[in-house]
């Protein structure tokens, strides 16, 4: 359960080495006794990420593409006690030209960025519904608003995730469980290293701070930066022939 100050006692980060995910954890400024479970594939990287956090950290094996394991992973985590906050941050970014040369990688990207979130979060939602409380943070992207030819697979996966998160939020209304949808723009970090930043680019730390601030309110969606919401509205209005001509 949340403590007297409204901070979570147990937190699960899916994609335990995610830069944005760990920045959200830091920005929470929760008590040092807070238990954080980092879920991911690379045990050494998870351990390193845990050492940088000011909490009591445990790790659990989790592969976003191993769909048939997700129910058991979530059962294992919740069997040890209620989970107040789940941050769904697993994700990869692969250049569109690479995906066109090797469509199998496109399948892995979709499983990591979309399908794995669905199978995992349905299991999470069921257990949070049973415990009567909890918050699920879903990391979407401005790319979900209108996928472009330059990143059509990534954009399509994020569009699916964004729609799923909105539907999940509606399905959980009145249960005591909340979904917070986070829509950042271009994030400068490991995933985008070497890429030219897009307009209104942000950082993992900024996304973390904005998410933590939104968790303290009743917000259902947070844009990072906030001005991105205006740009997204404009993106929806661009005629398709002109949209096709956009390089990025």
Features:
248 residues; alpha/beta; Rossmann fold; 7-stranded parallel beta sheet; 9 helices; 7 strands; globular
How would you explain this protein's 3D organization?
By secondary structure, this protein is of the alpha/beta class. Strand 5 (134-139), helix 6 (152-171) and strand 6 form a beta-alpha-beta unit. The model has no long low-confidence stretch (mean pLDDT 92). It contains nine helices and seven strands. The chain has a seven-stranded parallel sheet, with helices on both faces. The protein has one domain (10-244): NAD(P)-binding Rossmann-like Domain (Rossmann fold, 3-Layer(aba) Sandwich), CATH 3.40.50.720. The longest helix is centred in the middle third of the chain and has 29 residues, at 103-131. It has helices at 19-28, 43-51, 70-79, 96-101, 103-131, 152-171, 204-215, 228-237, 240-244; strands at residues 10-14, 35-40, 56-61, 85-88, 134-139, 177-184, 221-224.
């Amino acid at each position: 359960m949340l403590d007297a100050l409204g901070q979570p006692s147990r937190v699960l980060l899916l994609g335990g080495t995610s830069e944005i995910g760990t920045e959200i954890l830091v920005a929470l400024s929760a008590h040092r006794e807070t238990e954080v479970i980092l879920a991911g594939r690379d045990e050494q990287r998870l351990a390193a990420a845990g050492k940088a956090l000011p909490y009591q950290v445990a790790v659990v094996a989790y592969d976003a593409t191993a769909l048939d394991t997700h129910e058991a992973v979530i059962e294992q985590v919740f069997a040890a006690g209620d989970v107040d906050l789940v941050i769904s941050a697993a994700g990869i970014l692969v250049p569109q030209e690479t995906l066109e040369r090797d469509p199998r990688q496109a399948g892995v990207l979709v499983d990591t960025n979309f399908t794995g979130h669905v199978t995992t979060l349905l299991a999470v939602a069921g257990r949070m519904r049973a415990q009567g409380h909890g918050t699920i943070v879903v990391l979407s992207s401005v790319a979900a608003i209108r996928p472009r030819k330059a990143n059509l697979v990534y954009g399509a996966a994020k569009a699916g995730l964004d729609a799923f998160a909105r539907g999940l939020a509606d399905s959980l209304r009145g249960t005591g469980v909340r979904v917070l949808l986070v829509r950042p723009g271009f994030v400068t970090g490991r995933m985008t290293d070497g890429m030219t930043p897009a307009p209104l680019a942000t950082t993992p730390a900024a996304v973390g701070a904005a998410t933590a601030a939104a968790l303290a309110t009743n917000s259902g969606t947070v844009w990072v930066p906030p001005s991105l919401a205006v740009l997204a509205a404009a993106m929806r209005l661009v005629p398709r022939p002109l949209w096709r001509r956009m390089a990025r």
